[in-house]
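Side project, low priority. Logging it here so it doesn't get lost.
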Amino acid sequence: MTIGNLLKEYRIKAGKTQRSWIGEIISPSFYSKVEKGLSRISAEDLIELLRRNHVNLASFFDEIDYQAKSNDALEKEIITQITDAYYDCDLKHLKEIKQTIINSTFADKDELLLRVDSVLAIIEQTTEKLSSKEKSELKSKFFNAENFDRDTITIFLNFMYFYDFGSDLVITKKIFRQFKNSNAEDTQFIVLGILINMIEMCISENKYTDAWELIEMSKQVPTKPITCFSKMLLLILENLLNYHDEPKQVYIDNCQKEVEQLSLIGMTELSKSCQKMIDENIKTTN
C-alpha cells in the first residue's frame, strides 16, 4: 500500500477531515495531492503527521510498500527521531522506532538497530548488556577516523559514554580541530554537545585541568540562536568548575538561574539532571 492510500485509510478510521488531520503541518491542498498519490510527502512531515494523530510508527511503516518511497530519506529522519527521543528520554518512542526498523527494508538496518539499542541502553543504564562486538563496532567508527562528517560526529555525541575517558578526550579534540571553524550552525551545535559531555566526564573523573581547557575551546564556538541552549549548559559547567576552585555561593546561584531557565523553556528532564549534578558537586566540594 502507498503512503497516500494508507494515510487516507488511517484518517478515515480516526473520523477526521483532512484539515483536522494535518493541523498546521502542511497545506490542505498539498495534503490532498498526497492522498491521491500526486505529490510525495517528506519523511519529516510524514512522521510529524503520524505523531500528531497518535499513529503507531511501527504499525504504519509495516503496511507501506517500501519500494514506493525513498528509504534514504526515511533513514535520515529515523536517525533524527532517535536523537530527539534520546534527549527527551522517551523510551516509548525509542521502542516504536526500533520496531519500525525491524519491520523495514533499510539498507543500513543493522547499524540503525545498533544505534537505537545503544541509546536505549544509555537511558535504561544497562550498557553492560551490549555485547563486546556491539561496543567494538561503535568504537571502531570513531577512534580510527582521521576525518569526520556530520553523521559520524552525531553518532559519537550520543555514544561517548561507551568509551574510556582517554579515548573520548582524544576523539573530542580531533573533532574540535576539524570543525572549530565550521560555519554550519547545526555542526556547531553538535560540537558543543560533544564538548559538554566531555566536560561532564572531566568533572566526574576530577580532571579539572582538562575541563578548563575544554571550556576555553567551547568559547571559540560562536553564540547563535541554535547554540544558546548549549551555552546555557556550558555556563552551569563553568560555574561548577569555579565553585570547585573557589567555593562561593555566587557560583551555585548562577547555576540555579540556568536550571530555572531550562525548566521554563520546557526542558524538564534535563533541568532535573542538571540539578542532580549540581547537588552532587556541592557535596563533593564540601
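Brief comment: The radius of gyration is 21 Å.
Revisit when time allows.
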